Protein 1
Amino acid sequence: MTWLFKMAWRDSRRNYKRLLLFTSSIVLGIAALVSIDGFGENLKHDIDKEAGSLLGADLRISTSRTIKPATQSFLDSIAQFGDISKEVSFASMVSFVKTEDTRIVNVRALEGKYPYYGNILTEPASAYAELSQGQHTLLDEQVMKEFDIVLGDSVKVGNLVFVVTGKIKGIPGQTTVQMGVVPSIYIPMQYLDASGLIQFGSRYLRKFYYQYEDEKLADQLKEKYQKQYRPEGLDFDSIASSKRQTSQAFGVMTRFLNLVGFIALLLGCIGVASAVHIYIKGKLQTVAILRCLGIKGDKAFLIYLIQIAGMGLVGSLIGVVLGTFLQTVLPSVLSDFLPIAVSFGISWYSIGKGILLGILISVLFALIPLMNIRNVSPLRTLRVNEEVSEKGLGRWIVFGLIGAFILGFTYLQIGSLIEATFFVLFILFSFIILAAVAWLVMFLVRRIIPSNWSFILRQGFANLHRPNNQTFILVLSIGLGTALIATLFFMRGLLLDQISVAQAGDRPNMIVFDVQTPQKDQLLALTDSMDLPVLQQVPIVTMQLEKVKSMTRKEMMADSTRKDRWALNRENRVTYRDSIINSETIIDGAWVGNYDGNGPVPISLEKDYARAIGASLNDPLVFNVQGVELETVVSSIREIAWNRIQTNFLILFPNNILEQAPQFHVLITRTSSTDQSVAYQRNVVKAFPNVSVVGLEQILSTVDDLIGKISFVINFMALFSILTGLLILIGSVILSRFQRIKESVLLRTLGANRKQVLLINLTEYALLGLIAAFTGILLALVGSYALAVFVFQSPYSIKIVPIIIVLVTIVSLVVLIGLSNSRGILNRPPLEVLRGES
Amino acid sequence: MESILNVQNLSKSFQTGRKELTVLDSVSFEVKKGQTFSIVGPSGSGKTTLLGLCAGLDQSSSGSVELNGIRIDQMSEDERAAIRNQHVGFIFQSFQLIPTLTALENVMVPLELRGQRNPKDQAMELLTKVGLADRHDHYPSQLSGGEQQRVSLARAFSNAPSILFADEPTGNLDDETSEIVEALLFKLNQEHGTTLILVTHDLELAKRTQRTVKIKGGKLVEDILNPNPIV
């Protein structure tokens, strides 16, 4: 055995540069996995350590419902064991006095010593502690920047004007993304009523924060009362449960990132397999000599297996070092999505896992070419025409092992066998498509290059199918990387387009909500005075589902196996009208627009909501409309196109029943310019401080910002695949260098000039890049189509510009790398090159 | 004298498409221990195929090959490998040194395969005998053709083979170098008392062996005892 290691070492000495090239293919994949794994470990550790600050208290109870007196007594009673803080938060418009600009924000009215753990970071640092000392407000840093607000400026919140005494720089447990989507503004609770912002129908969330001496008490209270008060709409969160939820959420994120890294590693492994194939081909003669000298097939096989395992070890070690360095970068890449600052610590577990994985995966993928060694005949020393290839059962066993390994690893990452199988099938599908394209290209090029083409073109094309070509491996690696990045690129465009399309024509682009009944006519008049059309004016009544067929809501909620509990327990916002609108389609039953006063009220349900509450056509439902029970029957089921700026409702009532119920209103209009939009928002907020206005432009910019942040992270991960592809390209270009040198030198000896040789190489690499990128784009188009249609349920259209951008970028990169390698050959005289190689 | 190689009715055929091509047809001969023996014949006559079968590099279609009293024609490739390591030495026209090993390491390989302890001294001794002790740490690419063949000679004798197979040992060398290598081959052969089986085009070289068989069209057509062999 020692001798085998000695031979493996001796044989590798003269090839270490080549062997290092093989290792480079797996370096980035290992680096990606180690960095994400290590980052995940640190994140988990930090979440454990900072769990208290994620919640800010030992126990948090929140509700969006009106609190009944008995529930309020309970909430007060559990404060006796410790301290309580209260918060009411809701979306509202604020107006900046200096500029009269308006913006929708998340108003958070606070009372008490919250947060008990962690800090709300402000500038100046004392601003939060001094908030309740006057009519003060703290404003989100980004909003202050956006509207050029400085400390001391005034902000109108509802009926009151507050002085900005602090800039919010960080909120415990909240990510930059969350803060960016709905920026926060803090006001003292004592001014909430006077602001007039909480009115009938207003959507708000009440939170009660408790701090206890005995940290176990929070979990005990949660355990004891959660079930009892859930039907009342109370949600309980303790440090332990918040820790669990946060860990789960980020576990999902790191596992997803790990899978993207795993794709890069898989690509690297294909690179290894391909490189080992070329390497072993060059070693067959040595193996034949060894066989002649009396070595057994298995021993010869082991010599090279040891080399490959050693190579895997070196690659893994480099990957591990790089991954540990990358781990320091990841917190800043993901900072927008992290609720806490993540510290850096070396994760020996991730490092060990990375090394083992690197060795295992390189050996596994090298096995197919390595197995050929066992079949090398010593007769090859006399005649070199002996073909060797493993065609027996062994080959299929190795394929099986590779499949089992990929499935097993994916399963460990995802934790679901079905999802892991889908992932593996998706990878397999992509590989098959890419491999099929590569094969087809080689087949077609071999068959159909016209003989009347120029010499340069024919040579360039022929390089795609000649022995030791790079077509297969490059189409696979660069194609897959391109597919990943292009899918994201296309999806971003599609989602933004979808929102932009909503702005076209006469479609609504501005929505005014929380309008009280007495304000309705004045708002209509104001809208009219600004020459804006009232496209929709919708009354909204809130109600609670009480009974589905013979089952009460409480009975259904008691069933712990029940999914979709949200549908049963939500406070429904319902409208009534005599007709359906263009975003709705009746798919079952018949729409009844006017109630005739006889029997239960015929209503229409949205199809997913109907399924969630377990109701179908003609089923009786009972609703509680602010204390009054109302019997209804499902007369129709509707499908709704949600992707439009307009009000849509899960439950729709006919006219002649809810007109007298307490209600509020939503108005939808269309502005024709940004100036008009700003002016309208300003006037509405000025006249009706409690009313909120959201413009489509604002949604568009928020979504763009969010997608931009998500894309950045995913692109960062996809970059590993692209870079691995480029490394494989560099590797295979160098590996085939000898062959290329001989060809180029022969061509030059026969009279070809530098330019011609350069053009042949240019043609080859441009074609390779083009085929790889084109196939990747095709896959991305299929992927983005599937995502658009099945996940986002939006119309799909192909845009040419992003395709051209991706295509040109990838082709340029491939050509650049390919040609930079042949530069050395072109600049030297043929004789010098020939001598150097001999 | 005791026989070291006994070949009886040895045939080798290949299937080429629907046709069967017979490259060796019922060849029989016997070689005595310590004898020098050459196989001559035109290109494509089946010389190399015969050598491959006798040395256990390939499997025959029919007939038997007995090497040192052991039937090798029925053995598996790995069993034949063990026999080669114990009893057989090789010299090839294209030297067949392992390019990634130094001259010394190339010579050591057969000894190491036999599990011999301290193979270095013996390998160095052999390199000294072929005049390449000072080039022991050179790689094959750093040696001339003649030097490479001398390393190959040292390697061939390193496991003290009872029989040495040489396939056109001077085919890739110029006349002067060929002379040196031939002299060395016969000298080492005498010293070690090895049986030498030589395949060559060079009739002058063949005449220096004790016995020559001529192969034509896969058949043994002539068996001559040479009048002036090197003994």
Protein 2
Amino acid sequence: MNKTTIYGIFDDEEVLLSSVKEIRSNEIHIKEVYSPFPVHGLDHALGIKETRMAITAFIYGCIGLTFGIALIYYIMISGIYKSWPMNIGGKPNWTLYHNLPAFVPVLFELTVLFAGHLMSITFFIRCGLFPGNPEVSPDPRTTDDKFLMEIEVDGDISKVKKMLTKTGATEINLKE
Amino acid sequence: MQRESEIRDPLILGKKSYHDITRDVSRPVEGKANKYWWALFSLSLVLFGWGVLCILYTVGTGIGSWGLNKTINWAWDITNFVWWIGIGHAGTLISAVLLLFRQKWRMAINRSAEAMTIFGVVQAGLFPVIHMGRPWLAYWVFPIPNQFGSLWVNFNSPLLWDVFAISTYLTVSTVFWYIGLIPDFAMLRDRMSAKIAPMKKKLYSFLAFGWTGKAKHWQRFEEVSLVLAGLATPLVFSVHSIVSMDFATSVIPGWHTTIFPPYFVLGALFSGFAMVETLLIIMRKVVNLESYITIKHVVYMNVIILLTGSLVGTAYITELFMAWYSGVEYEQYAFINRATGPYWWSYALMMGCNVLTPQLYWIKSIRESFIATFVLSIFVNIGMWFERFVIIVTSLHRDFLPSSWTMFSPTFIDIGVYLGTIGFFFVLFLMYARTFPVIAQAELKTIVKSSGSEYKK
């Protein structure tokens, strides 16, 4: 059996949202929705799981903090064979915690540096975004003012087409 | 769908559909530059070129070509550095702090404010690098393994904290800005015709990273924006606090004060908002964004300027009070000398431009006038430059030994480098205004129905 992809195009995000709910309640699987801006509640309506981006940021932040402590401990406290201990302004340099207040700014900056950059890189990798990626949405108007619902159907497409028209799609396109 | 109170003033004027926003935002990118743009761009390019020559001369002959002397060993360079860093702060405040507070008026101005931040921090970063004298060894400020045994950078030093703070600030702000730009680049890519503008189409396809606007991607995009805003908020406060510690951790009377971090952060926000106003009041006219950058946005910024200006004024007076209250005569002398010594005129300019003129914003007609706001924003820009000049030069010019007392006068190289960074900044900003989507259109489209004047009727 050949699969047909149906593109339902909507003009308004509220119509789209109610349509998504209606179509999903009829147990039709929506493959993807493309929109020009984030539509609130669309992820829940589509049954998409919560994103874990914030959790990754927390983990990366912890890595940054650990890296910072290790770096400063190595450079300022342990040194290479303790060959050149630096006495700066009489600040104690034999244990980390004695001199910790002076290290807080750099530890904080490294935490933010790691969390911010590594989370952004994770975001790009998880979304498959990279410079020069030739991917475009099925209809170029979806970055302007149209909302597109993509449904893959095996066999009879008339039911889905009818549902889309009934729930407010302004245009329906097919791709074999 | 968000709803908004009926009595709030609209943030988008006129009848704007989603497509109208797309068209209005892409117009400057698709169209040709007018003669004002070319005139400004040429002028900036000349200034930039002059600055490059002065920088080359400095590097070639040494820092002796500046007006510095043994007593005043920091002057214009560090004044300009702090001035530019401060200007950057409003961009992050608008894009990060106001995002956390769910302020919708942020959306029309955050893109340009953030661009201003990045370009401003680039200018700021130039000064310490030039002042090193041998800028090709600038990488020595980073803790990299080296062949000098255990010779490392000093993590006790605020100057090193600055290295970490400013490089983190610059790179994280750039990433935050770029992630917001991706959907807008995708919009431009999809509008460009491969026949009429093949190069532009290719360029924006490259920059858009293959963004398509899938539901899952938008969900992640929103969370990433929120977390980056959460990270950028303490970051922006830390950056100027650390800049202030360059001074506050020293033992120079006039610098050695605990009020410096909050005082510098407030001053930075104050000067940053003034620069945002200077730029946007011109830009809304030049690229026809009057419907999006409205008087309401300007009024909100004026209120912030009034608040931060008053707080900065309070800090000035607190400094004077603490000098008297401390009972330390050297501290007292430093402040009396600031106000009545040979540099009294710069102190008067600072007080006049930063404390007195912003008080005019209590008057509604001034607060709601584009022309008055533009003029006052220039006053603030000048006043904040002099604030840093007062702090740096007047604290240094009376040294511990009266035999070392001296005055500072800039050479034409000092002035040339400063003008050069202003030129460089405007070169970057003007190029940005012609090639980037200057309004975060994807975000703006989410508030058309709740804050557009047509929908509020």
Protein 3
Amino acid sequence: MQFAFDSMLGLGLLACAAGVFWSRDLFRSVVMFIAFGLLLALTWVRLEAPDLALAEAAIGAGLTGVLLLDAIGHLRQHNEHSPRNHWLLPLLCCIALALLLILSFNARPEASISLPQLVAESLPESGVEHPITAVLLNFRSYDTLLEIAVLLVAAVVAMALNDGLAAAARTSTEQSNRDPVLAGFTSRLAPVILLVAIYVLWAGSYMPGGAFQGGAILAAGLVLLKLADFHIERYAESLLRLGLAFGFLVFLAVATSVMIGGRPFLTYPEAFAGQFILFIEAVLTFSIGLILFSLFNQSPGQEVPHDN
Amino acid sequence: MNLIPLLLVIPLAWALLSLLLPRLPIGLLALAGIVLQLGTAAMLWNNVQVHGASSYAIGDWVAPLGITLVADGLTVTLLAMTALIAVVCAFYAIFYLRAYEKERRYFWPLFWFLLAALNGIWLAGDLFNLYVGLELLTLSAVGMVTLSGERHALAAGLRYLYAALLGSLAYLLGVALLYGAYGTLDLGQLSSLLDANLMTQLALALMTFGLLMKTAVFPLHSWLPPAHGGALAPVSAILSALVVKSSFYILARLWMDAGDALMPVSAAQLLGTLGALAIIWGGWQAFRQSEIKMLVAYSTVAQLGYLMLLFPLAIGQSQQSAVLAWQGTMLHLLSHGFAKAAMFLAVGTLVLAVGKKRVVDMAGISAKMPLALFAFGLASISIMGLPPSGGFNAKWLLMQSAIQSGQWHWVAVLLVGSLITASYVFRVFSVSFQKDADPQIRSTHPALDLSALLLAAIAIALGFAAAIPVELLTLPEDML
């Protein structure tokens, strides 16, 4: 039974991937891509990686899908045709790589170091009970700090690209044409989304969840609000910019301030590690949500890049 | 207090500062920050010279559970080079960006994130951490390329992004395979564990492909010229001098750590051949370009080819030849960094003054802008590999290594490369010294000329003081 399910999942993934490449219409490609993301999330569940499944569903399928659909909308406005796919060479490369991977997987050496075991042994000292959170926010928190910087840079680049273009476009679409059904639905849904985001963040300390997943859910809520024409971001434009950097700011400040006590960079005081991690995760959730939302929010209006 | 984390905290803190408080004079603040970083790098250099290499466990978790940073001779040399080039580029940018009001706002945050990523990569001792560093580097570099928002810059930036992402994915797949096979991501541990089997070799091949893509080695170079040639002058300087070197640095570390046992001589010779082709093709394209910045950008493609000669000269050859190749390559990396940054800054000043981009527009410029042209000339001496310059010493070491290992074909490549370089450099000079032309120029701030001159002077000075960095540049331990 499970084998049947797994093979259907695998075939479905392949079919969706093929659909992404061979659809004539960009819109269909994107829909296939979203379906691919959802199947991939299911695959992660089957591989017993629920954290990855949550992230894949929220970011891979959800927000990326929204951004891609939005981009198609702009392409259509400018009557640009989808470029022709050169699929033969990539396909051959993929098949060759897949064969090599399968072959090498069979000849896999026995790993002499077991990191999961080390993580399990050090878990009591980490301040949290969920090993993934312990790795992300404690053992390898330096990676996470830089990842947050990557997200922030993405938002900064979007702002830089947008600065010249969007000011005009935004004012031109100022008049509101709010759909009453969507608006009513969204206004009831928004508090629930917020609650779910906070729950996922809180749950991260003892089960799958955490800042990235919570942030993605928060972002989804904000996107929904914007689509329903609520535009809460207009009330606090400058606050939004501070909010984008706030998570990184707090993370870096905590990471550095512990050095004053003579500890190495990013070492939480032993007794309070759990509280430190929860605090950092809370601000990260907030900022990740805003960053992901701002990537959507920054997409240009009617303008096209100018020639110079 | 340990200096290693400071080299990460300073750029990240300044990135936030310039992002959140744009009304402050962020250019001047940046200059203060970068001087601080230069001082820290110099002190760390001194520490390593006196006490030897040191490592730093972040969060007090030792590898493989945590991430370890490593500061050895090569690392501190690269940190010092980064800070030195960055301080001059920041000084240049303060004056250059006066003409670019809109771009200035976002230049500084991206500049600082880029520096943080570079410092992180030089210090990293962990394969996945290197991936994160590469991502941060790529994204800030792409952002800097597209700063102007012009159509050609956006196209170049997007192309750069796609190429770099493909490289990142290949690298990441390799990292995942190595982690699956050995259970650790720490470079130091991996170098003693690695063992010849299909999975390891596939992983190393994938990582090599990804890093070659990011280093823009022929034939994977086509993204580089539009990105480097189309960006603002200080951005081009940083991209060509530092950013492409970081992926090469990872590649070199990986190959030297894995060593002769894992890396087949044929693959090393193949990489050398790609390098030779890059030298010839890049040089020929540089000669053919009509825009002067594109000429300098193609020159980068050619000069990156010399770095690839490390592999055939070090893998499977004698100890002595490998040491010479390693020193020569790293000295080339340094002197090209300074010389190419100087070249881009000088050319940027010329383009700013003349207001046109083509080589022929520079006719008669020698009488009007002698200093910028002089800086370009000094930098060219090092790029061509004429004595006395860092470039000459580097090529001399590489040539000795080639002779020692009896690989005469690489000697021929080195000589032909210098001739091609001379041909495209003299093309610029023959135009700029035309006497009958009288170009109209806008006056530019003398600080612009001064910055280019300073970097060019350092490239030349490396010809006299090459021993200082070379002494520190020991090979990774298992090669000795």
Protein 4
Amino acid sequence: MDSTGVYGWTGKILRVDLSSGDIRTEDTLRWGAEYFGGRGLAARIAWDELPPGVGAYDPDNPLMFMPGVLSGTPAPSSGRTSICAVSPQAYPLEWFTRASIGGHWGTELKYAGYDGLIVTGQASGPVYLWVEDDHAELRDASALWGQGIMATQKQLLSELGDDVRILTIGQAGENRSRIAIIATETESAAGQGGFGGVMGAKNLKAIAVRGHGAVHVADSRELLARCAVVRDGMMIKYARRRRTNRIEGKYKQKHYACTQHCAVPCVTFYSDVPGAVYKDRKYSGQFHCCAPGFVKSPQWDVGFEAGFEVAQLANDYGLNHWEFRFGIGPWLHACQQRGELEMLNGDRADLNDPHFWVKLIEKTALREDWGDCFAEGGQRAPALLGAGEDLINQFYPAWGQASHWDGHGSFGLPSYPYWLVTGLQWAMDTRDPLGGGHGHTTNFSSMIRTIDKDDKVTWDKVRQLSERVYGVPSAADPWSGYRGKAHAASLHCDMNPLKDALGICDNIFPLIVDLKAEDLQIRAHGIEGLDFEYYFTAPALGLDMSRDEFYRTGTRIFTLERLLQIRNWARDRTVDETVISYLAYPETDPNPVTGDRVCVDPDGFGQLMDEFYALRGWNRNTGWPTRKCLEQLGMGSMADDMEQLGKLGEEV
Amino acid sequence: MAGTGKPRLRVSQNVCNACQSCQAYCSTAREGACAPSLSRVRVYLDPFGARHRITICRQCKNAACAKACPEGAITLSADGTRWDLDEDRCTGCFECVEACPFGAVFRHPTKQRPIRCDTCNGKPLCAEVCPMGALDWEDG
């Protein structure tokens, strides 16, 4: 047992001011434990330390690297880290948001003794931060500047030892691209947000960490027993991923866990794939999530080797895959369908030609020629290029980020009415909400394709499960239109920050549906999937709180982020409505229930927003939380602050 | 898995997926805290080739660590399947760490004693939690 009696936490936050070179630590728990770690802790700190008016590339922008409070413990799939700051990709305003990254860096930071790292200021020249337990120093990175993400890591591994974990940026980040990533290993990235550009603006090339310490847990025996139960629960849903890790296929493919303690990894590692454009090169790396979309999409088909090469080059230069696969690529295609942008300053923009794709990645990362426009991100590029401005909204729901599980634009899933849930999540968030807000999508929205429409018995069970999960039977019912969707969106808006604060995988949790179970609920050894997060967190942290109180932590974090938005960026209902014009386009694919392509009904969506605000205790006209809402969450002092600013929601 | 010889831990290096569950469970179960540096099994990651390397005691027939121990603190178990460390006799000289040709005996980061695998008395937790079969307990 740890002598401090603090579990999960290491107790210290590392602070580095690049302008002065000052490096110090502070007590983590001075911020309290009410927001857990990761994204929750970052929001809490931002509330005190991030005033209005700070831009993404300002030295004052605090770039926070926050592993989850469970990162470094044996909790399943728990090694993730939130990266939070004012985001250059956010649109139309640069505002505070977050990204999540896997890999093994965050857990190493915990083992080095830190619950988080906050970087402020701007170095006078390129530096990297070297952290080994109590020792932290800034070192010259002139020799690394201009290098890609792989070369930078390899160089630092050779200098510092191959057990060091590294976060770094590529050329895109150095050049302050708004779609630059921060990355580790071959494909783990804080992809959305453009935080690579923030690191570049600070002249911080990399952060290398080695830790020899430990993360203490409250009840190790009980924790391990409960982890085993939850792992069995994970196997119910992801049984197909549980198999001996055979090395198979042309490129010796094998599973690769992107984060610690993932028993059901979704990543595949490919070795020695020959380049299609650079024929003298071979690429090895992880390949998952949207990366296979570089190979083939509804708009292009370049073949496996070329697509793999493009994905790896984007990883190396440090560019956001999502932007190209779901934003820039489909938008360019739409422009070309009406005869525009077939040429870019003398370069043929042929989406079926891998040479164009390589040029697109390289010119964007280096801000060369027309690539300078794309470096500003897909939503800002059309105005700079002077073309296709009227088309971009089809591919960008809001906040500078491209389609994701909203049934529209370049992402054809889910179908109506399920995209009302994710659409509402988009409306209320500060970024693409599906970076942590899966849950409805992974559990319910595919049902319409797996359960027979006439199977009344099973659909009745779905309604019963929906009532159990969301409090209303209609939230998962494909024939229910707008009913119940606000309940589902509200729950997943809260689950999203809770997962990020714990550091657990968004893709896996929450585990709710088991189509083979009598009542369709996942259960392992009698424990319901709905309780899993609480079940393994309690013995890890020695929680002294009820299940409901635990899950309310997600509500508290989401609400605090909302307050920050209102205080610093004038967020209100009219801003939330941004997403409606995107949802007003017909859904991408024909609807399996109605047979046609459904558009949003703006009035119906407005009523959904009313319901959402009411469920949370926010004023429906302003979208601002009321005092009652804040006091119920233990945020009374923040209610006082908002009242003073005249931004407290009037009681409903 | 049924075999013909004595029980043993079979390591299949190629199939490790880098999840490091083995390290987390081992250190938490045996030392009460989670850390690679407290684990009896170590996974050395290969992020650019995915050929991760697992290092764990092989329970050698002629154990160099036992021979090197000046106190005779490392002794063969009664059933002959593993080497046990008698912590009362261990003085923390770390001769065993130096002697192991496989680098599978480690220094404890804060205590004056080595960390070495004793197969959890014939029920190795690491093999139980390995999702990919990289660590597998053969019953013999």
